[in-house]
Structures are given as structure tokens and as C-alpha cells.
Design a protein that fits this description.
The protein is mostly helical. It contains seven helices and no strands. It is globular.
């Protein structure tokens, strides 16, 4: 015997089915864009490593010219690739407990902090111990870099104390969250802009007038810049499009401090 639906029973069933299809399509679309973004992020790190290793002499800790190369590699890996993964973690892990996602988010941010600090040390050492010494913090790239790093550190402290440990009240968390999300996106955008200025600055120092002849090293760096922009735009789209927001569940409202 086939089950028969009345019109009043069929309409809710049809609506539920259509909603499930729409949700599936949304998740599939997010996963596709996220995969493309992640692949571009990995490509960005790999291309940066190849460029630094092949054209700029590789990496060391005892020569100022090659010690500098740790700076772009660590910054691209931390302040671009891992930063992107961190701000997308709540949307990527939509079926994971929020406390777990908070720990992953905080862990990634702490890793980024360490990498960025080491990257800054590398550039300051390469300037201070060069012969003759090179001036620090004179370029627009360096000014924006310090501002971006300061914003990132402030975000880390506020986010950790407000949302993780000891955890503020629900009212305060609700009030702070929109600013935390907005400043997180702003910090990532500043990282993309700062990276672009850094690429331009380095290629002009390295190639000088030869840059206009577009040698292979210049072509690779231009490609790195294009990948950075596309990667940044995709990340910002995924993190700011409301259709990809993680749906809150009851356990998300349980304060971490136990109050």
C-alpha cells in the first residue's frame, strides 16, 4: 500500500525537502570555494619558497641576506595562509563543537603569532647586522606591517580573554563578537595589502631596472602577487557571506567559565 498525503501534509514535506536541497547545495558551494582557496594558499606558500630559495639564495641564520628570506616565508605562511584557515574555521567545521573550534582558532592564532614574531626578528636582524646597517621602519610596507601585527596581537588578546578563557558573560560576548569578526577581516585584508607592498619593494631591490624586462624571477613574483589577491578575495568572501554562517546550537551557549 502506498502512503497517501493530504495537501496539508504534503506542503510541509515539500518545503522540508526543498530546504534540505538548498542547504546541501550551499554546503557543497562553500566546500568547493574553500578547497580552491586552500589550494591557492598552499600554492602561495610553495611559490614563495621556490622564489626565495632559487633566486634569493635560500635560507640561513648566519648571513644577513639569506636570513632575511625567513621574513617573507614566515609571514606568507602565517599572516596569510594560516590566518585564512583560522578565520574560516567556524564555517569549515560547521558540525564540530564550538569549544573545539575555539581551541583550533586560538591555536592557529598563537602559531601565527610565533611565526610573525620570528619573521619580524629575521628582518630586523638582517637590517641591523648588515654591513653597512640598513634603516628599519622607513617604508610604507614596514609601517603597515607593524600596524597589522599590532592589530593581530590585540585581536588575539581580546578574543582569548573574551571568548575562551576565562570567558566573559554572554552579553559581553554578544556585544564584542561583531567587532571581533570585523577587525579579524580587516586584519587579514591588511595582511594582503602589506604582502603586496612587500613583494613590490623586494622585487625592485632585487631586479631594479631589469624588472621592466620581465625576467622569469619577475614573472614568478607577479604570479605570486596575483595568487595573493585572488586568495585574499576568496577568503574575505567566504568569511563575510552570511549564507555560510555556522548555525548556533544549544551547546554553543554554554559559557566556558562555567557561570
Amino acid at each position: 500500500m502506498f502512503a497517501r498525503f493530504t495537501s496539508s501534509e504534503f506542503v510541509p514535506f515539500l518545503n522540508t525537502h526543498m530546504e534540505a536541497q538548498a542547504e546541501h547545495a550551499k554546503i557543497k558551494r562553500y566546500n568547493t570555494l574553500y578547497t580552491i582557496t586552500t589550494v591557492l594558499g598552499v600554492a602561495l606558500v610553495v611559490l614563495t619558497f621556490i622564489w626565495l630559495n632559487h633566486y634569493l639564495g635560500g635560507f640561513s641564520l648566519d648571513q644577513t641576506s639569506t636570513e632575511f628570506n625567513w621574513h617573507p616565508l614566515l609571514m606568507v605562511t602565517g599572516m596569510l595562509f594560516l590566518y585564512s584557515q583560522s578565520i574560516l574555521v567556524y564555517r569549515t567545521g560547521r558540525n564540530t563543537k564550538k569549544f573545539t573550534l575555539k581551541c583550533i582558532h586560538a591555536g592557529l592564532h598563537i602559531t601565527i603569532l610565533i611565526m610573525a614574531a620570528l619573521g619580524l626578528k629575521a628582518v630586523f636582524d638582517s637590517h641591523n647586522y648588515a654591513s653597512p646597517p640598513i634603516a628599519n621602519l622607513y617604508s610604507l610596507h614596514s609601517w603597515l606591517g607593524i600596524l597589522t601585527f599590532a592589530l593581530f596581537c590585540g585581536q588575539l588578546v581580546i578574543g582569548f580573554t573574551t571568548f575562551l578563557f576565562p570567558g566573559a558573560s554572554k552579553g559581553l560576548r554578544t556585544a564584542v563578537l561583531p567587532y571581533h569578526v570585523t577587525l579579524g577581516s580587516a586584519g587579514f585584508l591588511m595582511s594582503v595589502i602589506t604582502a603586496g607592498l612587500g613583494y613590490a619593494e623586494k622585487v625592485m631591490f632585487f631586479l631594479g631596472a631589469n624588472y621592466q624586462k620581465l625576467p622569469l624571477s619577475g614573472t614568478i613574483l607577479n604570479l605570486i602577487g596575483v595568487v595573493t589577491v585572488i586568495f585574499g578575495l576568496l577568503t574575505l568572501h567566504l568569511v563575510n557571506d552570511v549564507q555560510y554562517e555556522r548555525e548556533e546550537v544549544i551547546e554553543d551557549e554554554v559559557p566556558l567559565s562555567g557561570e
